[in-house]
C-alpha cells in the first residue's frame, strides 16, 4: 500500500511542473478573460462594472461597430483558413515523402533545411518576405523585370496579397507538418509495401491503400493543429500587408487587438476572443467527428 502511494506521489510530482504552468499561463488567463468579457472594462478607467452578457449582445447586434469588425474579421480569417489549411497538409505530406525517398545520408540534412524557417521569429520572417514581395525593389519583381515582365503588386492588390500571405505561411510553418509526417511515414511497416508491390500495385495504389490509411490519425492531428494555427493568424497580415489592401486581409485577431489597445475596450475585445476560441473548438470537434465517421465507414 505504501509503495502504491509512493508511486502515485512520484508520478504526480513529475507532472506537477506542467500542471502549474498550464494553470498559470493557460487556464487562469482564459478564466480571467471570460470574467473581463462580462465587465465594462476600459483600459484607462479604474472602475470595471459588471455588465453581464452586454458585450456579447453588442457583437451580435447588427449595425454596431463591434458587430461590423467581428464578422468582417471572422470572414477574412475563414478565407485564410480555407486557402492555407489544404496546402499546409498536402505540401507537408508531399515534402515528407520526398525527404523519405532520399538516400539515408541526405535525409537529416533536408529535414533540417525544411524545418529551419519554423524556428525564425515573426519579425525575421516578415523582413525576409518584405524584401521578396516589395512592389518596387523586391527580389521577385526585380527578377520579373529583368525577364521583361511587369512587376506584381504582391502586398497592395488582391488576389496577390492573399497569395503572398499563403506562400509566406507555407514557407514559415511547413517544417512542423513535414516533421510530423516524416515520423508517421517511418512507422508504416515496409512489409506492407513489399506485399503490395508483389501483387502488382503501382505507387499511387500503394499510397492510397497503404500510406493514407496508416497515417490517418496523424493526418487528423495535422489538420486540426493547422486549422487552429490558421485561425490564429496575426503576424503575417499585420507585418506584411497591415490588413490591406483596404481591409481585405484584416483578420479577426488584428481587430481584437485594435479593439483592446487602440479603442481601449478590453471587455468587448475579450468577448470577441472568447467567441473566437469557441468557434475554433467547434470546428476542431466537427473535423474530429467527421474523420472518425469516415474511419468507421
- Which CATH first-tier class would you pick? Mainly Alpha
CATH architecture: Orthogonal Bundle
- Going by CATH, what is the homologous superfamily? MetI-like
Order of helices and strands: HHHHHHHHHHHHH
Helix/strand/pairing class, anyone?
Answer: mainly alpha
Q: What is the β-strand count?
A: 0
Mean pLDDT: 90
Largest sheet: none
Relative helix content: over 70%
Strand content: under 5%
Number of domains: 1
- Looking at the structure, what is the overall shape? globular
Q: How many individual helices?
A: 13
Radius of gyration: 24 Å
Instruction: List low-confidence stretches.
Output: none
Q: So what's the oligomer here?
A: single chain
**What separation lies between the terminal Cα atoms?**
46 Å
Protein described:
Pfam families: BPD_transp_1 (PF00528). Keywords: Cell membrane, Membrane, Sugar transport, Transmembrane, Transmembrane helix, Transport. It comes from Paenibacillus silagei. Its main location: membrane. This is Multiple sugar transport system permease protein. The chain is mainly α. The chain has a single domain, classed as Orthogonal Bundle (MetI-like fold), CATH 1.10.3720.10. Helix content is 75%, strand content 0%. It has 13 helices and no strands. The model has no long low-confidence stretch (mean pLDDT 90).
What's the structural blueprint in terms of helices and strands?
Layout: H1 2-37, H2 54-59, H3 65-100, H4 104-115, H5 122-133, H6 139-146, H7 160-186, H8 190-198, H9 203-214, H10 216-231, H11 235-241, H12 252-261, H13 266-296
Helix pairs in contact: 1-13, 3-7, 3-10, 3-12, 5-11, 7-10, 7-11, 10-13, 12-13
